[in-house]
Design a protein that fits this description.
- By secondary structure, the protein is of the alpha+beta class.
- The chain has 12 helices and 16 strands.
- The protein has helices spanning 2-18, 39-54, 100-113, 154-158, 172-177, 192-199, 217-229, 233-245, 306-317, 330-336, 362-365, 408-417, and strands at 60-67, 70-81, 86-87, 94-95, 134-139, 142-147, 266-269, 272-275, 303-304, 321-322, 325-326, 350-352, 357-359, 374-377, 383-387, 392-397.
- The protein has an 8-stranded antiparallel sheet with strand order 3-2-1-16-15-14-13-12, with helices on both faces.
Length: 422
């Protein structure tokens, strides 16, 4: 009987909480029930997120849900810095790692709309060193380097079918000797264009167009943007995407005045959180607020907030527009959200478009989802998913690497979709 009396009170408190002023105040707010998502059912999501923090599995989180372009759920909990007991804030900055990839992919489509490049063109048209590449093939436990069967195209890079990994494939020794391994770039004392120039001379993992291989594809696209636009990558993104969308807190490196807003990275070891080391390693704090600040990694280098990233995703969901202003053409967006690699037999109900994973078969995917949903995540355990069917954007940020055994992503997906009414 208690639950019957208490739950409506919780719902009233919840409605009051989601409509209070916060970092998302520049985004239009809406009543969840009026937008087709149950405020009462969303309480389950809030409780679950708090449990992960209370149990010590997460330091803190920021989660944002937009429905019909309006904020219907916003939750901030835990600590930005557990040692100093500085609470997580809606203004906290997060290393979004591979969530950078979708933004860079949109930049490539912008240049195509400008008539300055074609996604079907060979990369060598813009980066000449990619005219002749090689592939490392394992035969009888020996590595043989052979010529690529064809040139890598821009579309291959967008769909991660160029055969380029993160330097740990059959020719791992060559990549290690070249000091190009892993997605972390913040410590590099050279522009991304120079790193990419050296990549082209190394043996790739697979033949172009034959397999989905996740790796440096989008970092190479960042170099393409620099060459084609004639601008540093950070400047191009600022002018063409960040400023038009009002993404005021998205950077490759944290400005000095915002350093105290950057979330601390934690490692989850034996189900306990431990502050990550300061050293320049992939599971450390990284040199995003110090160091050379020369390498603009399009594949994994951006810092952002939940509100900023939601603005970008909402623009994509809107078919390329925001506030009545067209940023990216709707036909380009449709191409980004279409599966381009179904012929390669990607499994589990997913395909891949031009920068996004897309759900092609809900039944095969298994979890609650919708056909056409697009999504991806970042190495620091952030994630997002967007449902065109329900006109919904979901952004979830935290900073934990590695995060073995954590099942928060699965739970937040379940508890978000279960709250949808229409």
């Amino acid at each position: 009987m208690k639950r019957v009396h208490i739950l409506p009170l919780f719902a009233l408190l919840f409605l009051s909480w989601i409509t209070s002023p916060s970092f998302a105040q520049e985004l239009q707010r809406g009543n969840p029930d009026q937008e087709g998502i149950s405020a009462e059912r969303l309480i389950k999501l809030r409780v679950a997120l708090d449990e992960f923090v209370k149990e010590g599995q997460l330091p803190g989180t920021v989660m944002l849900i937009l429905k019909n372009g309006k904020v219907v759920f916003e939750h901030v909990n835990g600590m930005r810095d557990m040692e100093s007991k500085d609470p997580m804030s809606s203004a906290t900055l997060f290393r979004i790692a591979s969530q950078s990839k979708a933004i860079i992919s949109a930049g490539i489509l912008l240049l195509q709309e400008d008539g300055k490049l074609s996604v079907t063109a060979p990369v060598s048209r813009y980066l000449p060193e990619f005219a002749k590449t090689t592939v490392a093939v394992v035969k009888d436990d020996l590595v043989e380097v052979v010529a690529a069967k064809r040139q890598i195209t821009v579309r291959d890079l967008l769909t991660h079918t160029a055969g380029i990994g993160y330097g740990y494939g059959p020719a791992a020794k060559d990549w290690k000797d070249a000091e190009i391994q892993g997605w972390y770039f913040a410590h590099r004392n050279e522009p991304i264009r120079e790193t990419v120039r050296r990549m082209a001379a190394l043996p790739m993992d697979r033949q172009p167009g034959e397999e989905f291989v996740y790796g440096y594809n989008t970092d190479i696209l960042g170099a393409v943007i620099e060459v084609v636009s004639g601008q540093p990558l950070n400047q191009f993104l600022q002018e063409r995407i960040f400023d038009p969308l009002g993404m005021k807190d998205t950077h490759f490196y944290v400005p000095a005045e915002k350093v105290n807003r950057l979330a601390v990275v934690y490692n989850l070891e034996d189900q306990k959180l431990k502050r990550a080391p300061d050293a320049s390693i992939m599971n450390g704090q990284g040199e995003y607020a110090s160091g050379p600040m020369k390498s603009y990694s399009g594949g994994a280098g951006l810092i952002s907030t939940a509100a900023d990233y939601a603005r970008f995703l909402q623009m994509i969901l809107n078919g390329g527009s925001t506030g009545g202003k067209l940023i990216l053409g709707p036909v380009s967006v449709k191409s980004m959200l279409s599966d381009h690699i179904g012929h390669l037999g990607r499994t589990n109900g997913t395909g891949f478009g031009l920068g996004f994973q897309v759900i092609t078969d809900v039944g095969d995917f298994g979890q609650l989802s919708t056909k056409g949903e697009f999504s991806w995540g970042g190495a620091y355990h952030s994630t997002y998913f967007v449902s065109p069917e329900y006109n919904m954007v979901v952004v979830y940020f935290t900073q934990v690497i590695p995060a073995p055994g954590l099942r928060d992503h699965e739970k937040l997906r379940l508890l978000t979709y279960q709250a949808i009414m229409h």
